[in-house]
């Protein structure tokens, strides 16, 4: 039996990834970068899910990961299409310029 | 025969509906014929009902037509009370009504031409037939509720017909205002009638005449107070409809309607509804001597007050209008004294001669209008008696019928007005000497203003060119005048008094006929009363002839009465300033109050609260919209912070916040 990597390491890595993602979402102005940061946060969550699934020997954690991947794929399709359309109309993908619906 | 009673209403109603939907297709001649035939058939039914009553000795019969309201033990049906009282009214309404319909066929042909809208000819007959239907519902009803339907119906028709030329009159709104005034003043009276009905229902649980009167007769002692209240409220209704003091002000203005309307509605029939109402409810009024005295005094005051105003009017129809108010006062005084037969008798004869006078005055007015047309004059007022004069000889039929009507109204024996007025005076002389004195003076004034009118219209030389070229009306108008003139002569013979103890044929026919419906006491003919009143009538008639025959030559001459009475004449001419008093006491404060409520309560209160509520929401929206800065990363931070706070909450609950706060030394 190989010495296994403790679950806490996975969770720590997941937390680091998630924090990077949050920082990216909050600080980047390029909407593609924001988008990628969101993906990073999703994958941080995925990592946490599989880590705990392994620890508790429970398949439902892995099941959730598949769901998240499917949703993320759909989100990528819609999100990138939105970004392309925004670029076509505004000739920019700077999210600070996306304020047409301001109250 | 009695089963035909509903047709008395259905026939005129059918006439109105036919003319309403097919009037234009029928054309003028035929729509007029439809209306006349409907009225005449209705008269035929009335005669049949009268025949049935003669056959059964005057027994009241109820002819049910349809079930109307049936809630638990409360039942109100469409049913017709066929008794001598209601059939008398039906005969007057349909008989005089038919004659006026015939007259209108001729009169309105010229009236619509003169006013420049021939399309309204049919509309006039729709209203007129509708009026007959409503009036016959009123008099034929066997319960207060159905009577009230007719009561409101005649009010509506009166409104529609006063405002028949609604775009004409003073400043283009005069006629419309007159119609509105009639309607609103009548509302006050209707309010009284409704209160009376509520109280009747509240006490007896029924509105049908028979059970109601039986109940009150059985509970006379216990119900004294409520009977007094009911009768006073009924009186308020009668005062409104029959144009008595203090609600008479609408009737003179109602003369804005075409003249046949003044004859039918505002002289012969509708305005007598109040007298009918009191006579119909005589059981209640007999239990309430106080209310009866109030009725008598209101009638007496009206009789004398309106007579003084009539003395000084110069509009031919206004003289007749105030005369009508005065005569209605006589009738109300009579029923107030308990002399129901005398009151109803005067109602019948008055319907004859006052309808005659109005129709004849319509004929005179159109004669002058034809004269105006002939000399291309468009400014003369064809109703102003000062613009007339010298018409005697130009209007061969109208002049004689007018004379007969005037003499009948003045109470010259043996014309109709003498017998009926004398009977009222006799009753007053027997029981209420002070009322007798006042009514005698009013009767004397009546003769005077009719003499004045005769001279001003027919006497002397024509004072305008239009009057000089006046010409007689067509046969369709003069024929009804002739028939009414005959009725005004012989109408009094239906109730010849008891001259002595020796009975004779035809004595007190009308009294014996009505005895089945209302109580009546036998009063013997009194020579002093009769001779005094006829002597005074003749004297004042001659005084008027003497005073006016010489004094009035030119349109601008002062009225001879003005020289005799001076300031008093101005007051009488200006109607004792009663209209102005209403203006100051009621209308202006009412408008002020409306403005106060409108501005203070409505705009300042209700509107304000609604507007400020809306404003508050708007302010809130503006405030919160500050958060929506359009800075996407800002939203992300808020979301993130919110997520963190939620996590903290779920993890540690509110206590954790407290601990965190302590940890940071706050």
Written description of the protein model:
The complex is a heterodimer of chains A (103) and B (666). By secondary structure, chain A is mainly alpha-helical. Chain A is built from three helices and no strands. In chain A, helix 1 (7-27) packs antiparallel against helix 2 and helix 2 (31-56) packs antiparallel against helix 3 (59-90). Chain B is mainly alpha-helical and 666 residues long. A two-stranded antiparallel sheet of chain B has the order 1-2. In chain B, a hairpin with a 2-residue loop joins strand 1 (61-71) and strand 2 (74-82). In chain B, helix 15 packs parallel to helix 19. The longest helix of chain B is centred in the first third of the chain and has 49 residues, at 7-55. The radius of gyration of chain B is 32 Å and the shape is globular. The mean pLDDT of chain B is 90. The chains are: A mainly alpha (103), B mainly alpha (666). The interface between A and B is medium-sized, with 13 and 13 residues.
């Amino acid at each position: 039996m190989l010495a296994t990597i403790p679950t806490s390491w996975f969770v720590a890595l997941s937390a680091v990834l998630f924090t990077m993602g949050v920082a990216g979402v909050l600080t980047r102005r390029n909407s593609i970068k924001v988008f990628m940061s969101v993906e990073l946060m999703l994958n941080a969550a995925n990592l946490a899910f599989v880590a705990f699934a392994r620890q508790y020997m429970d398949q439902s954690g892995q099941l959730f990961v598949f769901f998240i991947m499917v949703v993320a794929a759909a989100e990528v399709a819609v999100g990138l299409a939105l970004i392309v359309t925004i670029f076509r109309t505004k000739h920019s993908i700077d999210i600070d310029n996306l304020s047409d619906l301001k109250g | 025969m009695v089963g035909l009673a509903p047709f008395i209403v259905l026939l005129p109603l059918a006439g109105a509906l036919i003319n309403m939907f097919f009037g234009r297709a029928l054309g003028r001649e035929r729509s007029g014929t439809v209306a006349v035939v409907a009225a005449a058939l209705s008269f035929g039914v009335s005669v049949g009902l009268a025949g049935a009553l003669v056959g059964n000795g005057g027994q009241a019969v109820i002819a049910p037509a349809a079930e109307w309201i049936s809630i638990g033990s409360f039942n109100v049906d469409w049913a017709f009370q066929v008794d001598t009282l209601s059939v008398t009214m039906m005969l007057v309404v349909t008989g005089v009504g038919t004659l006026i319909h015939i007259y209108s066929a001729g009169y309105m042909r010229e009236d619509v031409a003169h006013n420049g809208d021939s399309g309204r000819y049919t509309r006039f007959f729709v209203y007129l037939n509708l009026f007959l239907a409503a009036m016959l519902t009123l008099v034929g009803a066997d319960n207060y509720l159905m009577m009230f339907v007719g009561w409101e119906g005649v009010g509506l028709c009166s409104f529609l017909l006063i405002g028949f030329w609604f775009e004409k009159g003073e400043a283009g709104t005069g006629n419309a205002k007159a119609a509105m005034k009639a309607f609103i003043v009548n509302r006050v009276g209707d309010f009284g009638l409704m209160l009376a009905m509520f109280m009747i229902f509240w006490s007896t649980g029924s509105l049908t005449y028979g059970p109601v009167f039986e109940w009150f007769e059985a509970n006379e002692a216990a119900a004294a107070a409520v009977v007094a209240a009911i009768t006073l409220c009924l009186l308020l209704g009668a005062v409104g409809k029959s144009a008595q003091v203090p609600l008479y002000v609408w009737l003179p203005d109602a003369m804005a309607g075409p003249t046949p309307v003044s004859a039918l509605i505002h002289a012969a029939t509708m305005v007598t509804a109040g007298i009918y109402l009191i006579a119909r409810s005589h059981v209640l009024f007999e239990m309430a001597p106080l209310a009866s005295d109030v009725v008598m005094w209101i009638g007496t005051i009206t009789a004398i007050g309106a007579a003084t105003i009539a003395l000084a009017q110069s509009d031919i129809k206004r003289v007749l209008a105030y005369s009508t108010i005065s005569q209605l006062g006589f009738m109300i005084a009579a029923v107030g004294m308990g002399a129901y037969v005398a009151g109803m008798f005067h109602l019948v004869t008055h319907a004859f001669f006052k309808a005659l006078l109005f129709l004849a005055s319509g004929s005179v007015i159109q004669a002058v209008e034809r004269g105006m047309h002939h000399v291309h004059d468009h400014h003369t007022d064809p109703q102003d008696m000062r613009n007339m004069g010298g018409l005697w000889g130009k209007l061969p039929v109208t002049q004689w019928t007018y004379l007969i009507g005037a003499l009948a109204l003045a109470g010259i024996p043996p014309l109709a007005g003498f017998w009926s007025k004398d009977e009222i005076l006799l009753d007053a002389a027997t029981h209420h000497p002070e009322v007798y004195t006042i009514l005698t003076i009013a009767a004397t004034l009546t003769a005077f203003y009719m003499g004045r009118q005769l001279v001003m219209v027919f006497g002397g030389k024509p004072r305008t060119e239009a009057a000089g070229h006046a010409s007689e009306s067509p046969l369709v108008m003069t024929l009804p005048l002739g028939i009414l003139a005959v009725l005004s002569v012989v109408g009094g013979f239906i109730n010849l008094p008891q001259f002595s103890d020796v009975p004779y044929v035809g004595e007190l026919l009308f009294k014996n006929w009505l005895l089945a419906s209302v109580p009546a006491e036998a009063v013997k003919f009194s020579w002093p009363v009769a001779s005094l009143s006829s002597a005074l009538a003749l004297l004042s008639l001659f005084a008027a002839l003497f005073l006016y025959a010489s004094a009035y030559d030119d349109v601008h001459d002062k009225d001879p009465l003005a020289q005799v009475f001076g300031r008093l004449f101005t007051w009488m001419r200006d109607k004792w300033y009663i209209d102005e008093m209403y203006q100051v006491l009621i209308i202006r404060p009412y408008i002020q109050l409306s403005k106060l409520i409108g501005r203070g309560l409505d705009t300042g209160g209700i509107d304000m609260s609604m507007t400020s509520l809306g404003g508050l929401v708007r302010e809130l929206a503006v405030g919160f919209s500050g958060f929506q800065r359009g800075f996407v990363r800002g939203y992300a931070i808020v979301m993130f912070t919110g997520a963190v706070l939620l996590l903290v909450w779920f993890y540690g609950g509110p206590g954790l916040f407290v601990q965190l706060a302590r940890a940071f030394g706050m």
